[in-house]
Amino acid sequence: MKKFLGYILSPFATVAFFLALLIFHPIQWVSFRLFGYAAHKRSVDALNLCLLSTAYLLGNTVTFINKQNLPTGRPIIFLANHQSLFDIPPLIWHLRKYHAKFISKIELTKGIPSISYNLKHGGGANIDRKDSRQSIAEIVKLALRMKENKWSAVIFPEGTRSKNGDVKSFQVGGIATILKKCPEALLVPIAIKDSWKMIRYGYYPLNTFTPMTWEVLVPIEPGNAPMEDLVLEAENRIKEALSSQIR
Question: Is the dihedral of CA 236, 66, 152, 155 positive or negative?
Answer without folding.
Answer: positive
